[in-house]
Amino acid sequence: MKTHAVKSAEIQRQWYVVDATGEPLGRLASRIATILKGKHKTLYSPHLDVGDFVVVINAEKVHLSGKKLEQKVYHHHSGYPGGLKTEAVSRVLQTHPTRVIERAVRGMLPHNALGRHMLAKLKVYAGPTHPHAAQMPRPLPAAANETE
To answer: Is the pLDDT of residue 83 over 70?
Structure first.
């Protein structure tokens, strides 16, 4: 038996579209991260980006369970003393609804250059329209293991 090494010419990328209306944020983000990594493919390799493109529409209608809408906050530190910035997720959803999904997916991807390359294949839009109709994206199935 020989181990198959994936070549870049063998990687074929698909486009998927996901409607975030009423979807729980964490479950949606984990499904998207699986597709971006390429773990749903038989030729998955952890050191290569073999994943597909994902277009998310209606990001402003994503669902947060429990009291997360009131209690969840995002933290960012500038690196200077006293530079801790906090912002409530409800405010982020009102001002920049795409950032909530992008941040959730980013946390589920590798924290290195490969993860940044995977994240570049994520396209998130607040409304129901997107400019990627020419790529003919397919709807993402309910479970990520049903794709191929």
So the answer is: yes
Query: Would you say residue 8 has pLDDT above 90?
Result: no
- The answer for residues whose C-beta is within 8 angstroms of residue 18's C-beta and 6 or more apart is 28, 31, 32, 54, 55, 56, 57, 139, 140
**Exposed, middle or buried: residue 85 (CB in 10 Å: 0-12, 13-18, 19+)?**
exposed
Sorted by where each starts, the structural domains of the chain and their CATH numbers stand as 14-64+99-138 (3.90.1180.10)
Question: CA 140 → CA 22, 80, 148, distances in Å?
Answer: 15, 42, 11
Across the range 95-107, mean pLDDT stands at: 97
Residue 55 pairs with which residues in a beta bridge?
17, 123
Closest to 41 in 3D by CA, of 4, 67, 66:
4
The tokens of 74 are what?
Answer: 């995002």
Phi-psi region for residue 78, left (φ > 0), alpha (ψ -120 to 50) or beta?
alpha
Distance between CA 110 and CA 139 in Å, rounded?
A: 25
Per-residue DSSP letters for 133-146? Answer: GGG-PEEPPSSGGG
